[in-house]
């Protein structure tokens, strides 16, 4: 089954403790992206990647890092999480061209205390 | 920075009625997307609109795009309870589909 998976789905952590949220897709998509969703703000893009070793900042990249060492994986790294990073995070992927339809993962709810 | 505004933010409507959700955006873009999100779930792609005047329909939902007016509409015909969800529009930014800007969403509740 074609899908985007994220782990963990739920995470409660403390300020300053480094964490990684993994994202993996099995559709051989070149493009992957991370978003955060906050009430009243919709989704905002954090980082995106056009292909392996090619990443670029989105709308709200501060406090986040990403890497793209393999085509299928695009982890989101929070080196020193803060409470304002408490949010619902979505990973997405798509194959450039055609309908440009994006496929979203199930989401990761992160709480930083 | 590209701004995307949706209205209304909240919409409560009776089954069988028609209504339209509006999506305005601030700068030129050649692509617009509509998504649906059910409570506690991920986003599901509904429509991809890639040209001025594009119109797409799926069941009771129809989306259109007017790039000159920087406006997209999502029209609901004869609403049913199953359409209750939050609907988002998203617009391609400086890098097109690589850099999407989302509206704040319209929470639709269809009352039986």
What does it look like?
The complex is a heterodimer of chains A (113) and B (112). Chain A has strands at 4-7, 10-13, 19-25, 31-38, 42-51, 54-57, 65-66, 76-78, 87-94, 103-104, 108-112. Chain A is 0% helix and 50% strand. In chain B, the strands form 2 sheets. In chain B, strands 2, 4, 5, 9, 10 and 11 form a 6-stranded mixed β-sheet that branches. In chain B, strands 1-3-8-7-6 form a 5-stranded antiparallel β-sheet, with no helix packed on it. The termini of chain B are far apart. In chain B, 36% of the residues are buried. Chain A binds chain B through residues 31, 33, 35, 40-45, 48, 50, 56, 58-59, 90, 92, 94, 96, 99-107, and chain B through 1, 4, 31, 33, 41-45, 48, 50, 88, 90, 95, 97-105.
List keywords for this structure.
heterodimer; A: 113 residues; mainly beta; 4-stranded antiparallel β-sheet; B: 112 residues; 5-stranded antiparallel β-sheet; globular
* Class inferred from helices and paired strands of chain A: mainly beta
Strand content of chain A: over 45%
| Major sheet summary line of chain A | 7 strands, mixed
What is the tally of beta strands of chain B? 11
Distance between the termini of chain A: 36 Å
**Which shape of chain B, going by the Cα principal axes?**
globular
């Amino acid at each position: 089954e074609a899908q985007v998976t994220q782990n963990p789905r739920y995470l409660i952590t403390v300020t300053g403790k480094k964490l990684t949220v993994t994202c993996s897709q099995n559709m051989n998509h070149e493009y992957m992206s991370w978003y955060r969703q906050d009430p009243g703000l919709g989704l905002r893009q954090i980082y995106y990647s056009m292909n392996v070793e090619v990443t670029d900042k989105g709308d709200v990249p501060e406090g986040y890092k990403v890497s793209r060492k393999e085509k299928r994986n695009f982890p989101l790294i929070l080196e020193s999480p803060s409470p304002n990073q408490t949010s619902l995070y979505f990973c997405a992927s798509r194959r450039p061209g055609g309908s440009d339809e994006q496929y979203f993962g199930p989401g990761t709810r992160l709480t930083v205390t | 920075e590209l701004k995307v505004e949706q209205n209304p933010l909240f919409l409560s409507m009776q089954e069988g009625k028609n209504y339209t959700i509006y999506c305005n955006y601030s700068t030129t873009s050649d692509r617009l997307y509509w998504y649906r999100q059910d409570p506690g779930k991920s986003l599901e792609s509904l429509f991809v609109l890639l040209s001025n005047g594009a119109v797409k329909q799926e069941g009771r939902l129809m989306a259109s795009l007017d790039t000159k007016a920087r406006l997209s509409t999502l029209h609901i015909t004869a609403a049913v309870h199953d359409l209750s969800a939050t609907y988002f529009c998203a617009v391609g930014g400086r890098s097109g589909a690589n850099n999407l800007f989302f509206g704040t969403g319209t929470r639709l509740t269809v009352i039986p």
